[in-house]
Amino acid sequence: MSIPIGSMGRAEQLPDPHFSGAGPGPAQRSARLPRTPPARAAAAAAPLLALLLAACAPANRVDASAPQAGAGALAAAGPSAGAPAAAEASSGRLQWRGGPTAILERDGLRLLTDPVLGPRGPAAFVLPKHPSTGVENAPVARYTDPPAEPIGRLDVILLSHNHADHFDTVAKETLPKDVTFVLPPDAAEAARAAGFTRLTPLDWDSETVIPTRAGRLRILAVPANHSHDAALDATLGKGNGYVLRWEGESPYSIYWTGDAVFTEPMRAVAARFAPIDLWLPHLGAVGVDGARGLRTMDAEEAVAAAALLRARHVIPIHHTTFGHYREPVTAFVQRAATKRLPADIHVPADGAWMPLPR
Q1: Most buried of 47, 55, 109, 116 (most Cβ within 10 A)?
Q2: What is the dihedral of CA 326, 78, 124, 291, to 10 degrees?
Q3: Residues 29/146/194/199 CA torsion (nearest 10 deg)
């Protein structure tokens, strides 16, 4: 498995306001993901892994334009320059815009996930309590600016839950207010207060159907448990993952997890919908070094879930961008290789368009 490290980020690291140690030097910044070091020993080894893989990258680099043969291949998501727009639209495409935010285009529809649109800086948003340190009203750094390319026309906004690192002030102020907005019932009041008018609240196991150019899209809300700790999960609020199923001549399925750890409800999603064409997991191992544990999947959980889902392709998001992420995406890539995960893993380049894999 080849590891194209260069596709994983595009801005130098900012200091984490909760870490006072020395940051990486200029040479290191170009070779590894920006992150803050976790306390747990396993996660602490991740920067060494990233540097080791980066050192090997020139000799093993995958040509993103070449077909990826065999199960478990890793494809880098590169710009789609030169590809006709009509061809991209017919098969679908994705643009990762950092953190949990992505644009999905398929069959005439354009969807935006968890809009976090604020600029790079040491205090992109404030969390009521930092998941690692427990510090209250904690500012969290953003290491990369959002892509310069405008978001453009939207048909649907999908929100997993109403936390500041998934629906920020800039999104509330700048996104069009008359777009269909699919969201958990608990988030409806905040969206309405921000001026959004076409709300579609979905509780778990509820769905909405949207016509497409050649068929229809079913959007099903599924559980997204934010923590293995039941009390903390309840405190953090009821969030959604979504199973997206395009129906028609060219069916396609995507499971976007939202902020979820690997739980029995996720196993139930796998039992119901596997195999999934494309899995979009939230990684980053948020909270792994905190007193109450994971709040998003780490590499070990993500590989186990991908295997159960029998995902044909995986595009990991929710990594690299923010200071509260505790595990680089390379940890997932390495774990997948060790476990011989049959899915093809496509590490997205921040801001680049890639075709939806089939």
Answers
A1: 116
A2: -10
A3: -110
Model confidence pLDDT, tens digit, residues 317-347: 999 999 999 999 999 999 999 999 999 999 9
Encoded tokens for 126: 């404030």
Q: What is the mean pLDDT of residues 71-80?
A: 43
Tell me which of 167 and 67 has the higher pLDDT: 167
Does the pLDDT at position 239 exceed 90? yes
Dihedral-angle region of residue 84 (phi above 0 means left; psi in -120 to 50 means alpha; beta otherwise): beta
pTM: 0.81
β-sheet bridge partners, residue 96: 102
Residue labelled with tokens 């068929």:
215
Distance CA 132, CA 293 (A): 8
The residue type of 5 is: I
Closest by Cα among 61, 2, 7, 33 to 350: 7
Residues 288/38, Cβ–Cβ less than 8 Å:
yes
Q: How far is CA 87 from the centre of its chain?
A: 25
What does the alpha-carbon distance between residue 114 and residue 9 come to, in Å, rounded to a whole number? 19
Which residue, among 235, 229, 345, 219, has the nearest Cα to 281 in the 3D structure?
345
Residue 101: closest CA among 118, 89, 121, 122: 118
Length reported for the chain: 358
The sign of the torsion formed by the CA atoms of 146, 142, 110, 177 equals negative
- Of the CA atoms within 13 Å of residue 323, those in its CB half-sphere come to 26
* Pairing status of strand 215-224 against strand 239-248: antiparallel
Of 190, 96, 191, 98, nearest to 141 by C-alpha is 98
